[in-house]
Amino acid sequence: MGDNSLLDSIGDGExxxxxxxxxxxxxxxMEEARxxxxxxxxxxxxxxxxxxxxxxxxxVSSHEENEESELVSLSLGMSFKSKTKDExxxxxxxxxGMDQGLRLGLDINLDPVDHAAEALNISSTESSFGEGGKDxxxxxxxxxxxxxxxxxxxxxxxxxxDQPKKTRVCIRARCDTQTWRKYGQKMAKGNxxxxxxxxxxxxxxxxxxxxxxDISILITTYEGTHNHRLPMSATAMACTTSAAASMLxxxxxxxxxxxxxxxxxxxxxxxxxxxxxxPTDALNFSTNQVSKPHQFYFPNSSISTLNSHPTITLxxxxxxxxxxxxxxxxYSSTSLNFSSGFSPLQSSMPPSPWSSYSGYFNxxxxxxxxxxxxxxxxxxxxxxPYLGHxxxxxxxxxxxxxxxxxPDSIVAATKAISSNPxxxxxxxxxxxxxxxxxxxxEQWK
DNA sequence: CGCATTTGACCCGCGC
DNA sequence: GCGCGGGTCAAATGCG
Length: 445
Known about the structure:
Region (Disordered): 1-72, 125-146
Structural class: alpha+beta
Strand content: 5-15%
Mean pLDDT: 45
Number of helices: 15
Order of helices and strands: HHHHHHHEEEEEHHHHEEHEEHHH
Low-confidence stretches: 1-20, 39-165, 253-299, 319-407, 434-445
Number of strands: 9
Main location: nucleus
Protein name: WRKY domain-containing protein
GO molecular function: DNA-binding transcription factor activity; sequence-specific DNA binding
Subcellular location: Nucleus
Largest sheet: 7 strands, mixed
């Protein structure tokens, strides 16, 4: 009920002008918060090497919490209002998590990327992945609900450590090469289309399932990890979902501050796993990107934290072409560019595929929605009734970039991220995964 | 006849 | 504790 209060308040009985006024007021607040946050981020960058960092950061957090209704993200100005105590708890916890591990100027914790790398390595035993992975604990498999029943004790203990019980990856796509067996169908409340349940039929024991709604665009929710060999296209998708889920499972990554990085990593992965993915593009990406910019941001990805089912939604219906940019003008944006044309970075970055990286950082609002079960909403679709979303995408476009002056904080933060060895290592792993076993620069290994 | 799909019942978790 | 809703099971049905 409470989860939908925002929508209800917007949708019920309000005169349009009043709505507009409220929206305008909210926008102003957001803008102010963004500006303030940018200043705070820059301050954080300057202070990041000092031990009192945490104290400063917490000071900011506590200040914001005192604001009560204005829980502000430090992630490049994205702001949102936390509506419930539980949500505030989550965000507070995430802020605390930020104090652990790497802390870069953008308040992005890079540790989760390691989880992404681990996720990419899930298939390494059955495919050629994973040479660049770390020797930490293996990425967990996500069992089907039946198996989960037997693992509730584990889940409970995980919950005590603020871990989600299950992580879902929701993918919007126009086709799917997987073979699925339908095992059930239900009418979902509030949705005219039935929700169907499928299981992967490649292997009887494969825990991967999907849930789909039959509209023109298939919305697929993945839970689990394939435990068998997959076709190339399916492997890419599996890695996408695994990486997304793994990153989402990371407590520190669930921090909204990390979402930009999450989405950027996922953007890369999903782009190469999209139905129209062309391996040749990947090769070109790794070799000729200076002359052929490869857009692999992913504009319509989103993350929700529905209770124990944090879900990341990836929209594969939008191609990787510049058409994605048509979404951009809807939001105020800040450019962040790893491209070779970005001179502030070039001196610090090795000559590598990533020197031409054109990424898309999309920080989405955390959203609860009970009716959608937490895994069917799509923030990218403006027809969806999520008027409460606050978008602050940070996109790059060689075209747009040259027209926008960058705040110093962005430049410094970008430099910090791109020059981080861990980040580069993870990206190298990802590249190895999708490009093949092409030789990588020594400094990436 | 075998396999896939449909559909109603059942189980279970969660919110009130 | 109760009700609701999501998820699963399994018998019934359809189809090649």
